[in-house]
Structure formats: structure tokens, C-alpha cells
């Protein structure tokens, strides 16, 4: 292989990091809106066809997870509920609801950053996506920019705990 060529696996890895950084930017939007900072971007080829960030609190909608928002937008762009030949990048391992939606939409690949030991359905708590009984199998990559994804979530929840502590202290002094 000539010196100037980048191995295909490294190109894919760099591409995954690029799109995960995009998802992290979307997660920041969730944070700014007071939502748990999770972001998702749906890509077909090199084109973004859907993106989303957590909005269940602001939209009063328990299904308004980042992944669901990105999948809905992707369906509208493609004018199809089947999202064939797509990759969904998400900063946190999907829950059962989102994993089910990915299977039904027939995405090809899921790439996520941080694992979610409490509600993750792509291998941590459950493995819905690779269950042998499912009629569609999604290829899964995990750990892309995991430390950045996990740090954003940890920082957010630390800030929330500090806010609650400050409110408790303020109410005791009044």
C-alpha cells in the first residue's frame, strides 16, 4: 500500500468520529434546553437525512428521544418508513423503545458513544438489537468518542444535582 493511502478501516473510523462529533453538538442543544444531553444524527452515504436531540420534557412527549427525532426526520426526507442503507450515530446507547424503532425502520448500522448500564438495549442491560428472533439485524459499533459522550452526561447530571442542592439550601434559609 502506498504511504499516502489511508486504510479503509481508518477512513471508516475517522468518518464515525466526524458524525459522532456532530451528534455531540446536538446533545449540547438538548443540554441548553434543560434536557438530558443526548444527540443523534442519521446519515445515508455522506448526507444527513435526520437529526435530533432529547426533547421529551419540552415537548411533553415520552417518545421525543434524540434517536426517535432523527428517525422521524429521516423518514420524511426519504418519504419512506424504511430507512435502508443508513447509519444512526447517537451519543448514548439506545433504550428499548429506540432500539425497536431502529429495527422496524431497517437502519443498517448503529454507532453509539457511551454505554447505558441502566436502560441500554444494544448490549448493556438488554440486547434487543441482536436478539436472534428479530427479523432485521442492525450492525452495531460502540465506544466512538465514548469518553466525551459519557463526560457530557456526567457533567450534566452533576450540574443538576448541584442545582437541586442549592434550591434545598435556599428553601431552608427562607
TrEMBL record:
Keywords from the named record: Hydrolase, Metal-binding, tRNA processing, Zinc
E.C. code: 3.5.4.33
Active site, UniProt feature: 67
Keyword Cell membrane: no
Record-annotated CMP/dCMP-type deaminase domain positions: 14-125
GO MF terms, alphabetically ordered: tRNA-specific adenosine-34 deaminase activity; zinc ion binding
One Pfam family linked to the record: MafB19-deam
HAMAP family: tRNA_aden_deaminase
Family to which this protein belongs: Belongs to the cytidine and deoxycytidylate deaminase family. ADAT2 subfamily.
Assembly description: Homodimer.
NCBIfam families attached to this UniProt entry: PRK10860.1
Name used for this protein in its record: tRNA-specific adenosine deaminase
Organism: Duffyella gerundensis
